[in-house]
Specification:
CATH architecture: Alpha-Beta Barrel
Distance between the termini: 13 Å
CATH topology: TIM Barrel
Strand order of the largest sheet: 1-2-3-4-5-6-7-8
Number of strands: 8
Order of helices and strands: EHEHEHHEHEHEHEHEHH
Shape: globular
Largest sheet: 8 strands, parallel
Strand content: 15-25%
Helix content: 40-55%
Amino acid sequence: MIDTHCHLTHAKFAGDADAVIERAREAGLRACVTIGTGVDDARRAVDLAKRHAGFVYATAGLDPFSAHAAGEAFDDAFASLSALLGEGGFRAVGEIGLDYHYDLDPRPVQAERLERQLDLAARLDLPVVIHVREAHDDMASILRSHPRSRGIIHSFTGTPDDAAPYLDNGWSLAFNGVLTFRNADGVRDAARTAPADRLLVETDSPYLAPVPHRGVRCEPAFVRHTLAALAEARREPLEHVDGVTTRNAAAIFRLAG
C-alpha cells in the first residue's frame, strides 16, 4: 500500500508525526507521500521526508489556499517555490488546482496560477498532484491545453462522467475515505469503471477518515480501509488491487524498489 496523499506536516500531527509514520509502517504501507501546501510547508515536508528516507516522500505546490494567502505577493511565492523545487528532493508539484467551492480568488486568477505551476512541473519533468473542487469542466479544459502535464487527480469524488475527461487525457485518479461513505455511490461507480492502471489510493490525512474511523483524525494507516473499499467496488481480490495501486503510485512518483 502507498498513501499517495497525506499532510504529515499538518498541525494536527505536530505532537506525534513520527509515531503516525511508525503506525503506517506497522500497518503494512510501503510509502507515504506528504503534500507541501505553500513554500514553508513544503520545506517542512521535505525535511520530514529526509528524516524518514525511503518511506516518506514530499511534494511542493501553491494550492488554491496558499496561493490566496500569498495575495499580491504570489509572484514572490512562485519564485520561492521554483527555487525550492530546483534544489531537488521533491517527487511532484502539488497540490495545485482550482477550488470553486470557496472561490478564494477570481476564477481566471486561479486558472493562471495553476497554469504557471503546470508549466513549471513540465520544465522540471515532475508529475502533478491536482486539487479540484466543483471545477471539473474548467480543470479538464486546462489540462487538455497542457499536454505535457501528467499526474494525479487527488481526492477524486466525482462520477464516471466527471472522470472521463481526465482518463481520456492520461491522468490517474486517487480515491480516499469518501469511497467508504454510504452516500458515495457515484464515486464507487467511477472507481469501478476506471482503468486499473489509473487507480491510486490516499488518505488526505488528517481529513476524511474512512469508515470505520469517521469522526477521528485520519492517518496514513487508515488507507487500508479505502483499499478494501476499492477492491469491493471493483469486485477484485484485495491483494490484486493492492498490487495494482502500489505499482501505479511507484511509477508516477518514481519510487525505487
